[in-house]
């Protein structure tokens, strides 16, 4: 008898798995999503000015994984955009991650030079050092530098973004943006990066465009009554189990969109405000695909806790307590035959897009014999 699969969630995880099952297993797949659009939080659309808006904040595709890269390129071409982030630190415009260029932007040359020499004597050029490790300095000058970077780059930004200080979130979170002993101003050093030429929604649409795949939007998992041989769930794992062990916490973000009657608002796609204002960063989307318009649209990003029914889940909050809670759900999930969890919400992991796709590809490989 033909195997029929239900995939809950039409984001990159669900779409990747759907495509693999449809194409390589020739199985039927129903993909449902409670939202009115595909793409999950990667969803983008062109607004009335022709600007490609990333509704849920900037998404930059970057990967060093050959399999992931060759998979996504079947569904879209990418431009050669290399992401850089500008930050305003005490009114000075500079680069994030903090690197040797930042050093010279924020300090007088003689001091920057002294710090640079000390850094090079201690660390290999091109090394990436997470801030929590970088703080462990003996030298007075380097101690001063570490305190400066902690305070000006990480402390306030992380407090705004996570509601707690950098010491209270898992080290892996701030390690995503290490101190970078380099003059490379890019945010990511992956081998491949870029923006899909027709956007992420189109990329996901192309993944889902297969005769074996049926997509149903505005459809809540709880309303589905049919029988399925297998369920792949990319929604929140705690919700699947009706929160029986308690809720897994998430951070949410919201955006205040503003339209301006001028070509550009800022000179970069993302400008971080680590020390000032209550938003964390400002996105100006037209930079990504060099959209031509006399107007521009920006989004100021604010962070808050996720609350059921009020806002969306964006970021799992990795720490010891949540790991333990997640482990209980994970264990329970293992007891269910033919139900699999994946994606940021299903795995409760802070995946980037490429990691979510990699996870879906690996899950597909792991169920080959089943
Ligand atoms: N971060 C920071 N200051 C910055 C940029 C990042 O403190 O200027 C910290 C903050 O805790 C943030 C984390 O590094 O949540 C990861 O940043 P990233 O840009 O990777 O976050 P994402 O783009 O996934 O929201």
Q: Describe it for me?
A:
The chain is α/β, with parallel strands linked by helices. It folds into two domains: 4-79 and 192-245 and 317-366, 3-Layer(aba) Sandwich (Rossmann fold); 85-180, no CATH class. The protein contains 13 helices and 18 strands. The protein has helices at residues 12-24, 66-72, 100-106, 109-122, 131-134, 140-162, 171-174, 200-208, 237-240, 286-289, 320-334, 343-346, 353-366, and strands at 4-8, 28-32, 44-46, 52-54, 61-63, 85-89, 92-96, 128-129, 179-180, 192-194, 213-216, 230-233, 250-260, 270-272, 281-284, 296-305, 315-316, 339-341. Strand 6 (85-89) and strand 7 (92-96) form a beta hairpin. Uridine-5'-diphosphate is lined by residues 87, 96, 153-154, 157-158, 161-162, 173-174, 176-177, 272, 274.
Keywords:
370 residues; alpha/beta; Rossmann fold; seven-stranded mixed sheet; 13 helices; 18 strands; 21% strand; binds uridine-5'-diphosphate
Number of domains: 2
CATH class of the largest domain: Alpha Beta
Uncertain segments are none
Number of strands: 18
Sheet with the most strands: spatial strand order:
7-6-14-15-16-13-17
Shape: globular
CATH homology-level superfamily of the largest domain: NAD(P)-binding Rossmann-like Domain
Helix content: 25-40%
Give every kind of bound small molecule, once each: uridine-5'-diphosphate
- Assign the CATH architecture of the largest domain: 3-Layer(aba) Sandwich
- Rg over CA atoms, rounded to whole Å, is 22 Å
């Amino acid at each position: 008898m033909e195997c029929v699969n239900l995939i809950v969630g039409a984001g990159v995880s669900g779409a990747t798995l759907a495509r693999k099952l449809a194409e390589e297993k020739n199985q039927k797949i129903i993909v449902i999503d409670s939202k009115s659009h595909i793409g999950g939080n990667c969803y983008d659309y062109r607004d009335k000015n022709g600007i490609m808006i990333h509704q849920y904040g900037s998404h930059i595709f970057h990967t060093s994984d050959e399999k992931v890269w060759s998979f996504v390129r079947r569904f879209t071409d990418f431009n050669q955009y290399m992401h850089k982030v500008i930050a305003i630190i005490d009114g000075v415009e500079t680069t994030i991650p903090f690197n040797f260029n930042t050093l010279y932007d924020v300090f007088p040359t003689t001091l920057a030079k002294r710090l640079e020499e000390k850094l090079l004597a201690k660390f290999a050029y091109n090394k990436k050092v997470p801030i929590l490790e970088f703080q462990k300095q003996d030298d007075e000058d380097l101690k001063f530098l570490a305190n400066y970077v902690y305070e000006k780059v990480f402390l306030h930004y992380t407090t705004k973004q996570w509601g707690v200080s950098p010491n209270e979130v898992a080290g892996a979170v701030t390690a995503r943006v290490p101190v970078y002993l380099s003059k490379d101003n890019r945010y990511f050093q992956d081998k491949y990066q870029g923006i899909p030429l027709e956007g992420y929604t189109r990329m996901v649409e192309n993944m889902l465009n297969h005769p074996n795949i049926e997509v149903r939007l505005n459809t809540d998992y709880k309303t589905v009554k049919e029988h399925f041989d297998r369920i792949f769930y990319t929604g929140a794992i705690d919700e699947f189990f009706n929160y029986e062990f308690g809720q897994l916490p998430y951070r949410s973000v919201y955006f205040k969109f503003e339209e301006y009657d001028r070509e550009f608002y800022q000179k970069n796609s993302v400008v971080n405000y680590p020390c000032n204002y209550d938003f964390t960063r400002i996105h100006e989307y037209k930079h990504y695909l060099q959209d031509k318009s006399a107007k521009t649209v920006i989004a100021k990003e604010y962070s808050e806790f996720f609350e059921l029914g009020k806002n969306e889940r964006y970021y799992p909050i990795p720490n010891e307590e949540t790991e333990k809670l997640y482990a209980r759900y994970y264990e329970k999930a293992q007891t269910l035959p033919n139900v699999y969890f994946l994606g940021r919400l299903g795995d409760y992991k802070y995946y980037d897009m490429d990691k979510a796709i990699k996870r879906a590809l690996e899950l597909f490989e792991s169920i080959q014999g089943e």
